[in-house]
């Protein structure tokens, strides 16, 4: 009875972590879309989110240090600027352009177009040799690309400017996640914990996105009555609280992803992401009134099949790689054990001669 109970507890824990991830991920998508209907400054909103995430990450690191008694990692300036800066810049542009696109497109079109990030992640993984070449990857690319075309073809709520922004964000997202994987895999940096990663990346992300904000929104924000020319204090507090809530959701999203991967696996996160997109589209159609034709739904299904195939290929590759590692460890362990079975002072050749002599008798 103990094993079924453990299996049930593990299953309930996984479901709970997935639901927590869904709450933050779907929640921040709808929250940003709702906020930008009135507050038309997506880049400034992103900058506020980055500040909130940095503060929460710093507080979390302090609490973790007090709890464990071990100091958290702090990168030197040379490593910080050479190793972390490219990842930070790509991440800032990905998030900033994604939020910017909400001014023009629906959640449905955003969700579907953002799914194309898998294509760019595949491309840059092959470029940086993080992914092995596989003929099946061509099928994955064809399915996702054709699904995206079917979804956007003759869409009643299609917007070119928003589509280009989110597609550019997906392209940069491919660079972002490839660089993030390289950053996390560098053991000497010690950034395996995403809280430490978020803490180090946020300042560089802020600096990288700030010039784009000044160019596009700086003057209009200064003349806006939402913040700097506000006439009443309650209105200012309302704007600051709503912006801060989005930052808390963004931090919760990163932390929930870390919990889900650490307690289960990256495969669980990938599979959960597929169903999360389905839930997002259904909620967008029900709550936001997004219109989708039969062809759009068919295109989304084709795209999801491509993503599912990619997840399946990754799972098979990881399983095969784990099997090879297991076999190598067994060989090493056997080679370590066998010499201990030999009699003292006898070499391998002497033992073989004795065995042949015994067999002759």
Structural commentary:
This protein is mainly α. Helices cover 80% and strands 0% of the residues. The protein has one domain (2-334). One of its GO terms (cellular component) is membrane. Residues 15-309 form the Sugar phosphate transporter domain. The chain crosses the membrane at residues 12-31, 43-64, 102-128, 135-153, 159-179, 199-216, 236-255, 267-288, 294-313.
Write a concise synopsis of the structure shown:
With 361 residues, the protein is mainly alpha-helical. It has helices at 2-35, 42-68, 77-101, 107-114, 117-127, 136-152, 160-185, 194-222, 233-263, 266-287, 294-337, 348-360.
Mean pLDDT: 78
End-to-end distance, in Å? 56 Å
Percent helix: over 70%
Secondary-structure element series: HHHHHHHHHHHH
Unreliable runs: 337-345
Question: So what's the overall shape?
Answer: globular
Give the domain tally.
Answer: 1
Largest sheet: none
Secondary-structure class:
mainly alpha
The total strand number stands at 0
How would you summarize the topology of this molecule?
Layout: H1 2-35, H2 42-68, H3 77-101, H4 107-114, H5 117-127, H6 136-152, H7 160-185, H8 194-222, H9 233-263, H10 266-287, H11 294-337, H12 348-360
Protein name: Solute carrier family 35 member C2-like
Pfam family, one: TPT
Keywords: Membrane, Transmembrane, Transmembrane helix
Descriptive keywords:
single chain, 361 residues, mainly alpha
């Amino acid at each position: 009875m103990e094993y079924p109970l453990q299996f049930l507890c593990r299953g309930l824990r996984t479901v709970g972590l997935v639901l927590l991830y869904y709450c933050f991920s779907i929640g921040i998508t709808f929250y940003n879309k709702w906020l930008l209907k009135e507050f038309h400054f997506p880049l400034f909103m992103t900058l506020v989110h980055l500040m909130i995430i940095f503060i929460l990450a710093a507080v979390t690191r302090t609490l973790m240090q007090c709890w464990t008694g071990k100091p958290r990692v702090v990168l030197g300036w040379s490593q910080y600027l050479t190793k972390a800066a490219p990842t930070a810049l790509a991440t800032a542009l990905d998030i900033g352009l994604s939020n910017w696109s909400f001014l023009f497109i629906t959640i449905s079109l955003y969700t579907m177009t953002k799914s194309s990030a898998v294509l760019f992640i595949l491309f840059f993984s092959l470029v940086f040799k993080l992914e092995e070449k596989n003929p099946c990857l061509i099928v994955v690319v064809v399915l996702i690309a054709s699904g995206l075309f079917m979804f956007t073809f003759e869409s009643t709520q299609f917007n070119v400017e928003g589509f280009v922004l989110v597609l550019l964000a997906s392209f940069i997202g491919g660079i972002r996640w490839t660089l993030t994987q390289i950053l996390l895999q560098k053991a000497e940096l010690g950034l395996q914990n995403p809280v430490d990663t978020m803490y180090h990346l946020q300042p560089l992300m802020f600096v990288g996105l700030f010039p784009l904000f000044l160019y596009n929104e700086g003057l209009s924000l200064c003349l806006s009555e939402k913040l700097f020319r506000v006439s009443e204090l309650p209105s200012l507090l309302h704007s600051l609280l709503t912006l801060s809530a989005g930052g808390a959701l963004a931090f919760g999203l990163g932390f929930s992803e870390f919990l889900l991967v650490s307690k289960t696996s990256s495969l669980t996160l990938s599979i959960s992401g597929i169903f999360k997109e389905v839930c997002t589209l259904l909620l967008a159609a029900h709550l936001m009134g997004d219109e989708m034709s039969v062809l759009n739904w068919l295109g989304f299904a084709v795209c999801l099949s491509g993503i599912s195939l990619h997840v399946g290929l990754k799972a098979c590759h990881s399983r095969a790689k784990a099997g090879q590692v297991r076999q190598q460890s067994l060989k090493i362990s056997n080679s370590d054990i066998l010499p201990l079975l030999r009699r003292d002072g006898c070499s391998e050749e002497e033992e073989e001669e004795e065995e042949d002599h015994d067999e002759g008798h």
